[in-house]
Amino acid sequence: MLTVSATLPPNMAAPLKNQNPESTEAVAHRLKQTREAMKLTQVAWCKLVGIATPQWNNYESGGRRITVDAALKVCRATGVGLNWIYRGWENDVPINLATVIKESERGARKRS
Question: Which of 22, 27, 59, 76 has an alpha carbon within 20 to 30 A of 49's alpha carbon?
Answer without folding.
Answer: 22
